[in-house]
Write a structure and sequence with these properties.
The chain is globular, with a radius of gyration of 26 Å. Helices cover 30% and strands 4% of the residues. It is mainly alpha-helical. It has helices at residues 25-39, 61-73, 143-152, 158-163, 165-170, 173-183, 212-218, 230-234, 238-248, 256-266, 276-287, 312-317, 341-344, 352-359, 402-411, 464-472, 479-482, and strands spanning 5-6, 116-117, 253-255, 291-294, 307-310, 435-438, 448-450. It has a domain at 230-296 and 304-325: Orthogonal Bundle (Arc Repressor Mutant, subunit A), CATH 1.10.10.10. The protein has 17 helices and seven strands. The longest helix has 15 residues, at 25-39. The strands form three sheets. It has a three-stranded antiparallel sheet. A two-stranded antiparallel sheet has the order 1-2. Strands 6-7 form a two-stranded antiparallel ribbon. The structure holds magnesium ion. Residues 285-286, 288-289, 291-292 line the site of magnesium ion (MG). It binds a DNA duplex through α11 and α14. GO terms for molecular function: DNA-binding transcription factor activity, RNA polymerase II-specific; RNA polymerase II cis-regulatory region sequence-specific DNA binding. Residues 366-375 have a biased composition (Basic residues). It is found in: Nucleus.
Length: 492
DNA sequence: CTATGTAAACAAC
DNA sequence: GTTGTTTACATAG
């Protein structure tokens, strides 16, 4: 990491500057702090930022109330916390009980690396190109990175809450003061923290991201009545539930089946009769980088069942990031509303060969492939109308199968970079935005037409061999030309 | 747009 | 049939 540019925030910005809906939940918390604190800074000129404010990325806003009310009653699961040194979890806690609910900001004790951050590559966020009032971190475009760092270094995890219910419930304003005192001045706070630590931030006690009104009205029953324990797992997303399952497991490892069992026991999802939830679990296990399938241990004789485990990162962090984050970039839109769904699917782009390649080593033994999911050969398809082409901006190019990318990586001994590689500096090497078209496999030679306008692109990242691999074998239909999301669908 | 859920194709076992 | 990957689509917020 070449984190270099240090920063300091001393400016203020409009309360509603941030649009939470556009920020990944992992990063919203901090935004919230920013904006919340800003609101109370009418009399202050110094912006406070708490990088380590109690933050439970696990807890979605809808569940916050439930969590809170459960804290007292629930016998906190005795969670071992391998990579965690609890002593570093200085109980900087706010007082959710105080009517005026003052929140004291306490700088993190371990966020040493927060004092700086990198100036990464691209990254264009909604806020990136933001207004002039935005806090100038340095390069506006790095806001996300910065926030990520904050999040990453947060030491307030759900577990912390679990273990400190008493403090949560009984803490008074001075608790904070105490810890602050005990802790002493943080070693070079990342961001200038004002000393007026007693200053109350006008924030409701409901929780991180939910305004009182919303939380109260939307979840009335979560107040103080029924919460056996079941509802704690109730609404959590799969990724978080899986995290819990693994967290509770010895060694933080479980087989898929065991995870299923855990779900059946501890969640409502798992009580479904259908298999959908299992599919979802597998989906999450696969797609979330927080979960890894440790190759089966020498399980005597049996079929080696993979052991799913939490990555060290997830353990350290105390949570797993949104599975969404590991999905391919948004492809939505451009998918014509009236376009037949089936027609829109990109032949051969799903799983299968793609998945296979990405996954293991084995070479796909190209066996005959049934061509199901072949859309109503029916009459539609009057689409051969030559497409107008780049309508300028939102041109939607169907995302190429990840396989191609990973295959490419593999062929370069790049150690299978996952999906996020699309955001990596290497992106350029396989940026399909340069691909303009492709000949039809049966006819042509799978020739890629690249936009040679880019001088940086001194080579065609994908050799035709690969293309043949996933196009040529897709059966009679041909990739792009017949692709459901092909040009014809880009109409309107 | 983000986060999540869900279905399903598909490859390897 | 199960496990694991991955894409497609949907929907809530
Ligand atoms: Mg994974």
């Amino acid at each position: 990491m070449e984190r270099t540019d240090s920063f300091k925030m001393t400016s203020s910005f409009p309360p509603d500057y941030f649009n939470l809906a556009q920020i990944p939940t992992d990063q919203r918390e901090h935004e919230y702090h920013l904006s919340a604190q800003t609101r109370s800074l009418d009399d202050e000129s110094l912006l406070q930022i708490s990088a380590s404010q109690p933050y439970d990325p696990w807890q979605s806003s809808e569940n916050w109330a439930a969590l809170r009310s459960n804290l007292a009653s629930e016998s906190m699961t005795p969670l071992q916390h391998p990579g965690h040194n609890n002593s570093t979890l200085e109980p900087h806690e706010q007082s959710p009980s105080s009517s005026s609910s003052s929140r004291v900001i306490v700088p993190g004790s371990n966020n040493t690396h927060l004092s700086s951050f990198s100036t990464p590559h691209h990254h264009s966020t909604p806020m990136a190109q933001s207004n002039l009032q935005a806090p100038r971190l340095h390069h506006g475009e790095d806001l996300l990175e910065w926030q990520s760092d904050l999040v990453t270094s947060s030491f307030y995890t759900r577990d912390f809450f679990y273990r400190q219910p008493a403090q949560l419930e009984t803490s008074s304003g001075n608790l904070l003061g105490n810890s602050l005192a005990l802790q002493g001045p943080p070693p070079s706070p990342p961001i200038s923290i004002s000393s007026q630590q007693s200053s109350s931030i006008s924030v409701n006690s409901m929780g991180p991201t939910v305004p009182n009104t919303v939380a109260d009205s939307s979840s009335p029953r979560t107040s103080l009545e029924d919460h056996s324990e079941g509802d704690l797992n109730a609404d959590l997303p799969y990724s978080k539930l899986i995290f819990r399952a693994l967290k509770e497991a010895e060694g933080n490892k479980l087989t898929l089946q065991q995870i299923y069992e855990w779900f059946t026991k501890n969640t409502n999802k798992g009580k479904d009769n259908t298999k959908g939830w299992q599919n979802s679990i597998r989906h999450n296990l696969s797609m979330n980088k927080g979960f890894t399938a440790d190759k089966a241990e020498g399980s005597t004789g049996k079929k080696p069942q993979n052991l799913w485990a939490l990555t060290q990162d997830a353990l350290d962090r105390g949570y797993v990031e949104s599975t969404t984050r590991y999905r391919k970039a948004n492809y939505r839109k451009a998918v014509g509303s009236n376009t037949p769904v089936l027609k829109r699917q990109w032949l051969g782009s799903k799983g299968g060969k793609a998945a296979n390649h990405a996954a293991k080593v084995g070479h796909p033994s190209q066996r005959a492939r049934r061509e199901r999911h072949h859309y109503s050969p029916g009459q539609h398809q009057p689409q051969q109308a030559p497409q107008p082409q780049p309508s300028g901006e939102e041109q939607y190019l169907p995302t190429p199968p990840l396989a191609s990318i990973q295959h490419y990586h593999l062929s370069h001994a790049l150690n299978g970079l996952p999906m996020e590689t699309r955001d990596s500096p290497l992106q350029h090497e396989y940026d399909y935005s340069h691909v303009i078209g492709c000949t039809s496999p049966p006819l042509g030679d799978n020739v890629l037409f690249c936009d040679a306008a880019d001088p940086e692109l001194d080579y065609v990242p994908l050799d035709m061999g690969h293309l043949c691999c996933w196009y040529g074998l897709q059966g009679p239909s041909n990739g792009l030309t017949a692709g459901p999301d092909g040009p014809s669908d880009l109409q309107h």
